[in-house]
């Protein structure tokens, strides 16, 4: 199915989204609340923010098939898993390591798109993927020397990256058939229910947190979620999930800079070298995809 023409230059919402999501890891680090609680309230406040604009989308729910309902829930489930795993990784490793590994999500999206949507893969794409994976391995290798805890954080970030790739692939399929606003709202509600069930089952309190934590929950909802995830969901009507994945390559760069100034986190030689390899490998794909995707030839 052909992508629609974006009403604004694609690079504008992409830049806004990248800057917004770069703050996510910083906010997570600044809160002492469990990550499952942070994730739940992050999405709950986002839904509350979206509700005043949802009235005209009520009728759309009646046109949703049972299969689409299942896929919406699964998309929300994998989004919740992504937040749980990736946000959990930030409690164990540095912002630089976690976000650089998170930047590998296009690798998983690429593999999934090949098997699910029969999107072809060129030798250049495979070469870029190989270099990026080597970079991630290099980061993990360096973190072994810091502590086993850091390595566990890297593994959690990798699993969280796999989860968000599945979420994005489901979204790419659904957004060809349903409006982006309804998709985002439905997926967020599903993810909230998953978080609530998890917190109840694990005996994690959902109230009684400090004022600073509630401020962080609100900021997580507005900045990286509304101006990040919601914006990217909207963009998937006009560009592919692969394109969005590769353009958020700027997140680890922005997050690492913010972590240096706000959290006093320094970048190690292994992180710098691994990050360079990841960025180089992903850039190869971005350049190749730019040539192949004619719908983006004037906007990316």
UniProtKB/TrEMBL annotation:
<keyword id="KW-1133">Transmembrane helix</keyword>
<feature type="transmembrane region" description="Helical">
    <location>
        <begin position="182"/>
        <end position="202"/>
    </location>
</feature>
<feature type="transmembrane region" description="Helical">
    <location>
        <begin position="214"/>
        <end position="232"/>
    </location>
</feature>
<feature type="transmembrane region" description="Helical">
    <location>
        <begin position="244"/>
        <end position="263"/>
    </location>
</feature>
<feature type="transmembrane region" description="Helical">
    <location>
        <begin position="7"/>
        <end position="28"/>
    </location>
</feature>
<feature type="domain" description="EamA">
    <location>
        <begin position="152"/>
        <end position="285"/>
    </location>
</feature>
<feature type="transmembrane region" description="Helical">
    <location>
        <begin position="95"/>
        <end position="117"/>
    </location>
</feature>
<feature type="transmembrane region" description="Helical">
    <location>
        <begin position="269"/>
        <end position="286"/>
    </location>
</feature>
<comment type="similarity">
    <text>Belongs to the EamA transporter family.</text>
</comment>
<dbReference type="InterPro" id="IPR000620">
    <property type="entry name" value="EamA_dom"/>
</dbReference>
<feature type="transmembrane region" description="Helical">
    <location>
        <begin position="70"/>
        <end position="89"/>
    </location>
</feature>
<dbReference type="Pfam" id="PF00892">
    <property type="entry name" value="EamA"/>
</dbReference>
<dbReference type="InterPro" id="IPR037185">
    <property type="entry name" value="EmrE-like"/>
</dbReference>
<feature type="domain" description="EamA">
    <location>
        <begin position="14"/>
        <end position="140"/>
    </location>
</feature>
<dbReference type="InterPro" id="IPR050638">
    <property type="entry name" value="AA-Vitamin_Transporters"/>
</dbReference>
<keyword id="KW-0812">Transmembrane</keyword>
<protein>
    <submittedName>
        <fullName>DMT family transporter</fullName>
    </submittedName>
</protein>
<keyword id="KW-0472">Membrane</keyword>
<keyword id="KW-1003">Cell membrane</keyword>
<feature type="transmembrane region" description="Helical">
    <location>
        <begin position="40"/>
        <end position="58"/>
    </location>
</feature>
<feature type="transmembrane region" description="Helical">
    <location>
        <begin position="124"/>
        <end position="144"/>
    </location>
</feature>
<feature type="transmembrane region" description="Helical">
    <location>
        <begin position="150"/>
        <end position="170"/>
    </location>
</feature>
